[in-house]
Design a protein that fits this description.
The two termini are about 30 Å apart. By secondary structure, the protein is α/β, with parallel strands linked by helices. Helix 4 runs parallel beside helix 6 (about 150-155) and helix 8 (about 195-200) runs parallel beside helix 10 (about 215-230). It is built from 14 helices and 8 strands. It has a 6-stranded parallel sheet, with helices on one face. It has helices at about 25-35, 55-70, 85-95, 115-130, 140, 150-155, 170-180, 195-200, 210-215, 215-230, 235-260, 265-275, 290-295, 300-315, and strands at about 5-10, 40-45, 75-80, 100-105, 135, 160-165, 185-190, 205-210.
Length: about 325
């Protein structure tokens, strides 16, 4: 394995102004922070981007502005999920006006649909989309799972390019084994930040999650170290493994602290402290008060993140 074979794709937050309109400077600052960290791509308007909570106007502005930013080789995936075929299709029709690298779609989950109906749903959307379509399996939040047979059927569509898997890792392993067996290039992107280092060593190389937006350099470094160890000497490999393990622990500790101190409300405070303005938790998420913000910012793992940010900014 080499470093080019593993990829980190942060799920970006959506920074908002006090009127819950898109905070353009905040989005640009967030995007540039990702690129400076060496990430491979970004996911805009997903779960972490609070897409279901945005007004239609703000959603459209987000897609339009994100697609307008210079991005070089940085892949841009955008979410288009909604609760019916006609509503999701309208989003895709809007996205078709802009240059993006992929459209990511959850199964509709407000009403219950059969697996056969979901196959028809995704086929129709893939036919409509100019960009490749990616399935988004998030059963812990939607309570809808795409079955193995459904994924296999959808993988045959010429414009369905892959899947973002947030479910059990054993299901991912089975899917990847089947794809390898038939020689398919269907992409499998996983959301398992707890296991990032180990999964890269296993050969599961594409990783997407919101926590990577908070600490992109840590995630990229884990990926780099885990990928290098195949060709390193025993001593160097041990050093790389130990450093990657420390960063893995830091990443998950940071995520757990964020969750404990308010989740997306805490994310606003943390990203603001990293130089990214805007509000990332739309109402009715609560706002952290001054005492709560101070307590969060004084956590040792947060201090470690901010010290790393400061070190990078002063070295530029």
């Amino acid at each position: 394995m080499n470093t080019a074979s593993a990829a980190i794709i942060p799920a970006l937050g959506t920074p908002l102004d006090p009127d819950e309109q898109l905070h353009h400077k905040g989005f640009e600052a967030q995007f540039e922070r990702m690129r400076a960290a060496g990430i491979n791509g970004v996911f805009v308007a997903g779960t972490f981007g609070m897409s279901p909570l945005l007004t239609d106007e703000t959603y459209r502005e987000l897609i339009q502005y994100a697609a307008s930013l210079p991005r070089g080789n940085t892949e841009m995936l955008v979410g288009a999920s909604d609760q019916s075929l006609v509503r999701t299709r309208q989003r895709i029709e809007f996205i078709n006006h802009y240059k993006v690298d992929g459209v990511v779609v959850l199964p509709p989950f407000f009403m219950q649909f059969s697996q056969q109906e979901l196959v028809s749903y995704f086929h129709t959307l893939a036919d409509q989309s100019n960009a490749p379509l990616y399935l988004y399996d998030l059963p812990q939040r939607t309570h809808v799972s795409l079955s193995h047979d459904t994924i296999m059927a959808l993988a045959q569509h010429p414009n369905i390019a892959g899947i973002k898997c947030s479910g059990p890792i054993e299901d991912v392993r089975k899917l990847m084994a089947w794809l390898k067996q038939i020689g398919s290039d269907f992409r499998v992107v996983v959301a398992q930040p707890d296991q990032l280092q180990r999964l890269i060593r296993e050969g599961i190389r594409e990783h997407l999650d919101g926590i990577y937006t908070l600490a992109p350099r840590w995630a990229v470094k884990i990926t780099h170290l885990a990928s290098m160890t195949d060709t390193a000497t025993d001593t160097t490999m041990t050093s790389h493994t130990n450093e990657a393990s420390r960063l893995q622990s830091d990443l998950i500790e940071l995520r757990d602290v964020m969750r404990h101190h308010g989740g997306m409300s805490a994310m606003t405070v943390l990203l603001n402290a990293c130089g990214v303005p805007g509000m990332f938790a739309p109402l009715p998420f609560r706002r952290l008060g001054p005492t709560q913000r101070q307590e969060l910012l004084e956590q040792p793992i947060v201090q470690k993140l901010l010290a790393a940010e400061k070190s990078v900014s002063t070295s530029i």
